[in-house]
Amino acid sequence: MTLFMKCVFEFLGTLVLILLGDGVVASNLLNKSKGQGGGWVVVTMGWGFAVMCGVFVAGPYSGAHLNPAVSLGLAIGGHFPWSDVLPYIVAQMLGGFAGALLVYMFYKDHFDATDNADDKLGIFCTMPAIENKARNFFCEVVGTWLLVYVILLFAHSENAPQVGMGSMGAFPVTLLIMAIGMSLGGATGYAINPARDLAPRLAHFLLPIKGKRDSGWGYSWVPVAGPVCGAALAALTHLLIY
Asked: Which CATH number fits domain 3-241: 3.90.1150.10, 2.60.120.1440, 3.40.50.150, 1.20.1080.10?
C-alpha cells in the first residue's frame, strides 16, 4: 500500500477517534443531552471504545497510530521509517480537526443550549483539574510513556503484520486507554495525543461557538510537549531493555 493511502486511513481512523471521543464528552457535558451527567467512567470507556473503532478503521492498512506521539515513539524505537513520520502526523492532525468539526455540527443545538464556556472547551481539548504546568507536563509524560511503551511491547508478537496501535488488534489497546484514563486521567484529562488535543483546540478557536471562552493557548503546549517527551522516553526505555 502506498504511503498516501496509509495516510488516508490514518486520517479516517483519527477522525473516528475524535468523533467518538469528543462526542462522549459532549454527550456527558452539554445541556439537554440524554447522556448529560454520565460521569468520568462513561468518558473513559467512551474514549477506549473510540480508540477501538479508530483501530478497526485504520489498523489493517496503516498500523493505526492515530497519534503523533505513537508515530514518533515507534520511529525512535526503530519500528517505523522516519520518512513516514511527518506525513502520518499531518494526516492525524487533519483527522483530529475534522472529527472535532463533526462533533460540533452533531451537537450544535446542545452547544447553543449550554452556557458553561469551560465545558464547551473541554469537549474539544484538555485543561488541567489543577493548573500547575510543571506537574501537568509530568502527568502527560507519564501517561504517554505508559501508552507508547505498552504499544511497543504489543509489537513483540510475531503475529503483528503492522506496528502501531493496531498491531495486536483493537481490544488490548482499548483496555490500555481505559486503564490510563481511569487511573491517570483525573489530573489533566489525559491528552496523551497531540492530534487529540491540538487539532480540536484549533477547531474550537475557529468555530463560531456561541458563548465560547478563549481556547486555552497558554496551556496548549503541555498536551503537545508532554506526549512527545513521553513517547521518546518510552522508545528509549524499550531500546535499553530489549
From this structure: 1.20.1080.10
